[in-house]
Amino acid sequence: MTTSEPAIRVDALSKRYGRTLALDEVGFAVQEREMFALLGPNGAGKTTLLHILCTILRPDSGAAFIGGSDVVREPLAARRRLGIVFQEPSLDDRLTVHENLDLHGLVFGVPRKIRRQRIEEMLDLVELTGWADKPARTLSSGMKRRLEIARALIHDSEIMLLDEPTVGLDAQTRERIWSYLERLRREREITVMVTTHYIEEVEGCDRVCIIDHGKILALDTPEALKREHGRQVLRLVLRNESDRQEILTRFAGRLAGETGAAAEAPILLNSDDAFVDALLAEYGNRLRSMAIDAPSLETVFLSLTGRELRDQAAGARERTLAFGRRGGEHTR
Amino acid sequence: MTIAGTARKPIPRRSPLLVQLGGLYGIWLREVKRAIRDRGQLVGGISRPILWVLILGIGLNPYFRGEVYGEVTFVVPFTYLQFIFPAVVALNIMYTSVQSAVSVIWDREFGFLREVLVSPMSRGTILLGKVLGGATVAVVHGSLVLILARFADVSLTPMEVLKALGLMAMLAFALTSLGVVIANRIKSFAGFGVFSNAVILPLYFTSSSIFPLDPALTGAQTRVVYPEWLVILVKYNPLTYAIDALRGVLINYNQFDPRIGILVMLAAGVVLFAIALYDFRRV
Predict the structure, then answer these.
(1) β-bridge partners, A13
(2) CB contact B192 to A (< 8 Å)
(3) Do residues A156 and B11 make contact, with C-beta atoms less than 8 angstroms apart?
(4) Per-residue pLDDT reduced to its tens digit, B193-234
(5) How close does chain A come to B10, measured CA to CA in Å?
(6) How far apart are CA A137 and CA A94, in angstroms?
(7) What is the ipTM, given to two decimal places?
(8) Cα separation of B283 and B277, whole Å?
């Protein structure tokens, strides 16, 4: 790899599923040793982009390069550089922690001696040494994530791709995962690309790419994003419906995002201190609640997409997985 | 704090063939380990032959004399127990093969398959490891039936056991490939019961496994004894010839040329694996 070649380069990448355009001419570059976050709601195209980067999905048009290797034309060279943590757990439940790592080493062609040594190091890194001989199914979901991070490093990967590595984990575990990633980047000098829809997590990243409906909305450092797109947002809930309608029509120009139909749904208004004062003077005794969001990535996202990040209902795959978790089939 | 061990150290490159072989071993080993740890599968593998050989076999034994409507048309020089013994070996292989193939659906949707699809393993290696693993487990389950040989009055020499194991391996490979071909065509997971009812039992019952087609009769005469549709089903069921070959080795009784069985199994193995691979490449 030449030094000038970025770790990940994506050129005008498009992917269409039937009539939905999952990715629309997406292009960016991630530098070596950068911590790069892809932020967007579910269905924004993050996972599609990641699947193209890890060579299991072909783009309709455009190109993507991992350390200079084209993911379509030289998938093997690209894969050797990549360490991947998928969104869904991809461990083998019936194998032990050690066996899971050993299988990974085998399919990535790591010689036995190095394999043994590397497994030990990585278990130590993610603090799972004491669990080496326990079946993977006995691990908590946070431990499983840590094991998957360890596994992605067994074959000496240079670029880590993590798809929602902290989804469904408690705050403490999420923090721990991020501390591992930070440490890995520092000590192993690897590039980390993470997708997430937890906004607070990307504050520590070098650069954040906000993506929605397959399009890049903004790409910059968290500070620059806040400076440029961050706004103070006012959340209002009113006591009665007529006041609510009045505010909705009177300040239509200030609406910061879609407002739900329910009467309790907060109205989001772009604001500044003077506006807050004026509003309070006039409506102060008719409010049920009011909150002011200081400029943050949260409000950046809101002002760019007009929506807040929200989880969606489970799809067919999640339902089947839940069925298996309940012990639905012995073929699992 | 820096731990020396976490710094990156490049891995020496090995020859691609060696890497593929190592991965093949890893995938095979995973299949075998999973099967060993699946109690349910093991219980089925043991209880099934016991039911078929000891209950059905012994129960029907007195009624098996080669007579139809009171008139002896031909004599099969074996007891019913001996006659169905090789078929039960095949049955146990069928269940286990198809069952491990069905796990392809799980692998594909959740976990393992994604993990190996982003590895340097070729699709062919992944599929071969998976099929060989499933076939190995199936042969082991088939061998469990061989332990019951003495209860079925089947005496086996070590040479016969070896030959039988060879045939069983061919059968297991073909059936596991068949299972993968079917599993690849299934979008959502319906459950193993569907497979068992829609694939395994129909194939099994129309394979002259539990009743013989009279070898002494001509085609026309056979059609008098049995309804024509059944004769046709049995004749065109490839499993008929596999079981016949197995019967030739285990109890020395062939209705057809034993080489047909071997040919059918080899051809089915190659063709079904090729179809499975074709599907798999498009995943």
Answers:
(1) A26
(2) yes
(3) yes
(4) 676 677 888 888 888 888 776 655 555 666 667 777 888 888
(5) 6
(6) 7
(7) 0.81
(8) 10
